[in-house]
Amino acid sequence: MTTGGDADTWGYNGALLGPTLRVRSGEQIRVNVRNDLDEATTVHWHGMRLPAACDGGPHQKIEPGATWSPTWKVFQPGATLWYHPHPHGSTEVHVYRGLGGMLLVDDDETTSEHLPHRYGQDDIPLIVQDKTFDEFGKFVEADRRGVGMLGTTLLVNGAVGPTFQVTSELTRFRLLNASTARSYSFGFSDDRPFHIIASDGGLLDAPVSVDRVRLTPAERVEIVVRMAPGERVVLHSYPQDLGAPGIPTGADDQFDVLPLIAAGKLRPSPQLPHRLTRVRRLDPGTAVATRDFELRSDRINDEHMDMARIDQVVTVDTVEIWHVTNVSLVPHNFHVHGMQFQVVSVDEQPPPAELAGWKDTVFAPPGVQLRLVMRFAKYSDPDLPYMYHCHLLWHEDAGVMGQFVVVKPGEEAGTVTTGLDWPHPDTPPLPPSHDGLHG
Ligand SMILES: [Cu+2]
């Protein structure tokens, strides 16, 4: 890595990334987003239940100099969400250049006295990204192969090589994989166990003890780790099996993510509760439809993303099963906008406990079948689609994305009129051969 130069970066209210936004469940919120870039972008509220018009997907374009002010009522459990751009065809480069930030939803359970909850002291957001720097210290938009761009240097909350001074016996880390392509397998350098307390959409029923946790791009997890006074341990990302031997995935790479250095005297922390919340189970038996999605290297179900085409029409306040199969040889994941879903099964087996809570993004390795159950609550709009897509952003930009509208019972889907000039003409072209990608 080279230091000393100035990278050209993009950010919200600053040079890189953006402020942590905190909202309370039940609150009406409004965000004013002014686009000071030279090109159009959007801001997507990843993991939020909200009306399609507020989603910030590629249909809510913000032109240069324009301001977009979505407002909605937060009605979902406390959770670690995030926000990032979603301009169709250039999401990868907009995120890579630095756009992204944490969006925390609080409720009485997530801010309980029984959990570490002092922001910046024992409740710490960690935005993990990989970048490649050139000899002048500028971000390099590196070759895309397999999963996409893999950086050689990690940034944590936008910093290279930070450390964290631990001041409490228990520390909660809200981990976000905001990389464009890389997946991480997080653990500690002495293999100590830690607890997962929350997944993408909020608290798990109970803490889950593990010594590794995988995050594919856009996934979040909240973990709690115990430290003794004076200890030093490193949060690390370990080699992992991404189910795609021979494909450039970064699976063999490892990184020091964050050294933790405990003070000589630590603030006492309460024991983690045995029960964190009661996750309301969606009953697959109540599903009114089952849909199949086959993820290929550059499309879903033989269709490249088309801004003008509505791929799925679903009915508001109904439950559906989405059966997602990665039929390619490259790893993907699967994200659905405007909601949280539950994983019913992975290759017909119940999911591990850390995947049994609310999720909005789930790993889809080659050859694996996922069964998801979801409910399209409250909001409908026949003309404005939500997205479902792979969150490996090169794949997303290349067309591994589709659109669904939520309609009222008996209502027909409308006509899409927004975002039709995307993908952006200045978007860096995708390699015509899709090198490293297969059927
Ligand atoms: Cu993908």
From TrEMBL:
InterPro entries, per database record: Cu-oxidase-like_N, Cu-oxidase_2nd, Cu-oxidase_C, Cu-oxidase_fam, Cupredoxin
Gene3D superfamilies, A to Z: Cupredoxins - blue copper proteins
The protein's name: Copper oxidase
Every Plastocyanin-like domain range: 6-109, 152-227, 295-407
PANTHER family: BILIRUBIN OXIDASE, CUPREDOXIN SUPERFAMILY PROTEIN
Organism of this sequence: Streptomyces hainanensis
Family, as annotated: Belongs to the multicopper oxidase family.
SUPFAM superfamilies linked: Cupredoxins
Chain residue ranges for the region called Disordered: 415-439
Example GO molecular function: copper ion binding
